[in-house]
Amino acid sequence: MATPNTPLWEVFIRSRNGLAHKHCGSLHAADSTMALQAARDIYTRRGEGLSIWVVPSNAITASDPSEKGMMFEPAESKIYRHPTFYDVPEEVGHM
Amino acid sequence: MSAPSIKVQETPLVLYVLRRADDALILGHRLSEWCGHAPMLEEDMALANIALDLLGQARELYAYAAKVEGKGNDEDKFAYLRDVRQYRNLLLAEQPNGDFARTMVRQFFYSAFADLYWRATMKSADATLAAIAAKSEKESAYHLRHSSEWIVRLGDGTEESHARTQAAIDEFWAFTGEMFAVDDSERGLIEAGVAFDPAGLKQQWLKTVTSVIAEATLILPKNDWMQQGGRAGRHSEHLGHLLSELQSLQRSFPGATW
């Protein structure tokens, strides 16, 4: 078990063909250098990634789950915001 | 019933390859003993990863030794069916894990050497050894980085971690000389460009070790008396105990698979 004063880090991995770093988990480490090494050993040991970011968990500002209604429900009824009413020409390709 | 030990025809090249294979197997086995016991989950994984890197190196080297020897031995027989006196690893590799500081200092001393050694061996006239070296060098470079970072944090950490790390350095220092020693069986290989004379790496190794130790606010011992014998099969009492565990299944149930 990690000692209580070992900070928590969030790990983001960019995979081989991925364009962006994606959150894949968290870990305990004394500092950013050790966090990066631990991330390498825990999350890329099967060749999952080509780049790693680690971010102190306490640097993340998160939305409040109790405000879910106010924050996210209004968007649910706005289906016209989905670009499904347009025909995308073939030549445009991957968007 | 107990499986008897194999006989190995130790030509200079077979012996040379077995020595490196044994270093990797024994140190890797020591690290594997941490599995499930490391101070934190993250480090448990890190140590197991290093152990597996070393086991992979050992397998390739044993397979090559078997091919060169050509007497029907294979990687499993080399690992499971040789007695203590037939093992050729560095004494450093077989030293018990002790506390985390000891494990890291042992790793640091070895990896600082292995990284230089494999990089040099990439130029070997022996294509198989050069290929194994190229793969191993990338692994040992990371082992060195990981153990170096820990040495700095342990040495420059708390009073307790500093004292434990210094004690480990003082204890293992006498086992570092063996890494740079060469005996007659290797001289011919060095002249042929197959092996690399490790004596030439001593200064660079010392430079790496000194700078990390200094950053960690630790001190390198002054004594230069060095332990030797592992390369010739004269081991500390610890290796026999290690092998009895490593080999118990194959010795008791020869050829067992699952």
Question: What is this structure, in a nutshell?
Answer:
The complex is a heterodimer of chains A (95) and B (258). Chain A has 95 residues and is α+β, with helices and mostly antiparallel strands. Chain A is built from 2 helices and 3 strands.
Q: Would you spell out the secondary-structure blueprint of this structure?
A:
The complex is a heterodimer of chains A (95) and B (258).
Chain A: E1 8-14, E2 22-28, H1 32-43, E3 51-56, H2 68-76
Antiparallel strand pairs in A: 1-2, 1-3
Chain B: H1 12-32, H2 41-69, H3 75-80, H4 91-94, H5 100-121, H6 127-155, H7 159-172, H8 184-191, H9 202-215, H10 237-252
Features:
heterodimer; A: 95 residues; alpha+beta; Ubiquitin-like (UB roll); 3-stranded antiparallel beta sheet; 2 helices; 22% helix; 21% strand; flat; B: 258 residues; mainly alpha; Ferritin; globular
Question: Can you describe what's shown?
Answer:
The complex is a heterodimer of chains A (95) and B (258). In chain A, a hairpin with a 7-residue loop joins strand 1 and strand 2. Chain A has a single domain, classed as Ubiquitin-like (UB roll). Chain A has a three-stranded antiparallel sheet with strand order 2-1-3, covered by helices on one side. Chain A is 22% helix and 21% strand. By secondary structure, chain A is an alpha+beta fold. Chain B has 258 residues and is mostly helical. Chain B has a single domain, classed as Ferritin, core subunit, four-helix bundle (Ferritin, Up-down Bundle). Chain B is built from ten helices and no strands. Chain B has helices spanning 12-32, 41-69, 75-80, 91-94, 100-121, 127-155, 159-172, 184-191, 202-215, 237-252. Chain B is globular. The two termini of chain B are 19 Å apart.
